[in-house]
Design goal:
The chain is of the alpha/beta class. It contains 15 helices and twelve strands.
């Protein structure tokens, strides 16, 4: 049976593998979920072809481009695709569904694989993601976790997922903890497009009949924007509030942010970002505490002066149903205590058998 040699964005999941033949830089910015990178032109080659096209002639650029593309396809056939069996069905895409993916698809089909080219390429895929993110978030029923900084909301989301609940972890998708000190030490934030791809991919896999637990967020998580439709749906949703003691929150934050403790200079540089809000005298007090290694005093004062007032203002302003929230009052924030909270919430909406 011969399969079509062109497929649409909504048929992506029908294929054994998705092959991205764009350059590594294009792939790094964003790509179809699960796609593998097999560039037919690397970043330097792509730039070289573009320059030749503009400065010399389209004919000369196509002649060189064909040689480079052929060489790279051959390399992928000898290495990357060597172990694929006869029944392999890949979907291939480039920027616009043009020559790069067309060349790869043609060669794969000539060999005997039932390869298809993504109609419209990455641009068509990106249009679909943007369109879906304008409507898809409104199709779910959310339970929004609220609570002051250090209440263990992200850890509770992880425990809920382990307990079988549906979870949308926006800070994990954004690789950021959502505050001025929220940068992760070993994971830079993705591009906005990649964040939206991750979000779309997460949403489309969820069951619309079951609630989705999500942490209360502002419009931005680090440098990334939360799509309007999702934010509006979250802000109209039922809330769950975690009311944890300050001492428990301080200990939790010291444990969560140990990378700052190991690098006080970086912490002090981040605290400088709060200068306009709190003034030089307060910043100097915080930086002196960091120099002394007095982490409990520093974290407690940061909570009292900065994080708690800001969080309360933002959450009460943005989440209309917070006053009617189901309240959790853990005495501590150990893994066992957070697991117990997750079990309590998951029992309210058990997963289907």
């Amino acid at each position: 049976m011969k399969f079509p040699d062109v497929a649409g964005v909504r048929e992506i999941d029908l294929f054994d593998e998705v092959i991205d033949v764009r350059s590594p830089a294009e792939f790094a910015e964003d790509h179809v979920p699960g796609a593998a990178s097999f560039p037919v032109l690397d970043d330097g080659e792509r730039a070289r072809i573009g320059t030749l096209y503009k400065r010399v002639s389209p004919f000369d650029s196509k002649k060189l481009g064909a040689a480079l593309v052929s060489r790279n396809i051959a390399r992928h056939l000898e290495a990357g695709f060597a172990g694929r069996d006869k029944g392999w069905r890949p979907l291939v895409y480039c920027w616009r569904g043009g020559k790069r993916s067309g060349a790869m698809t043609h060669v794969l089909r000539e060999i005997g694989w039932q390869a298809a080219q993504l109609d419209g390429g990455y641009k068509a895929y990106r249009r679909e993601v943007v369109a879906q993110l304008a409507v898809l978030p409104r199709e779910f029923r959310y339970r929004v976790l609220c609570g002051e900084t250090g209440s263990g909301k992200s850890r509770l989301l992880e425990a809920l997922a382990a307990a079988g609940a549906q979870v949308l972890d926006l800070e994990r998708l954004a690789a950021h903890r959502g505050s001025v000190l929220g940068n992760l030490p070993d994971a830079p934030q993705p591009a906005q497009k990649m964040f939206e791809t991750r979000l779309w991919d997460g949403l489309r896999k969820l069951d619309r009949e079951r609630p989705v637990f999500v942490e209360a967020e502002s419009k931005k998580i680090g440098q990334l924007q939360v799509p309007d439709a999702l934010l509006e749906a979250m802000r109209a949703a039922e809330c769950v509030r975690i009311d944890a003691p300050v001492a428990a929150r301080v200990g939790f934050l010291i444990d969560e942010y140990r990378h700052f403790l190991a690098d006080p200079a970086n912490l002090k540089a981040q605290l400088d970002c709060l200068l306009a809000l709190h003034g030089r005298e307060v910043i100097a007090l915080w930086q002196a505490a960091a120099d002394r290694g007095d982490w409990e005093a520093l974290v407690a004062d940061l909570l009292e002066r900065h994080y708690d007032p800001a969080y309360r203002r933002s959450t009460h302003r943005n989440y209309a149903r917070l006053a009617d929230a189901h309240v959790l009052r853990p005495r501590e924030l150990s893994p066992a205590a957070i697991g117990a909270l997750a079990a309590e919430l998951a029992e309210r909406d058990p997963a289907p058998a």
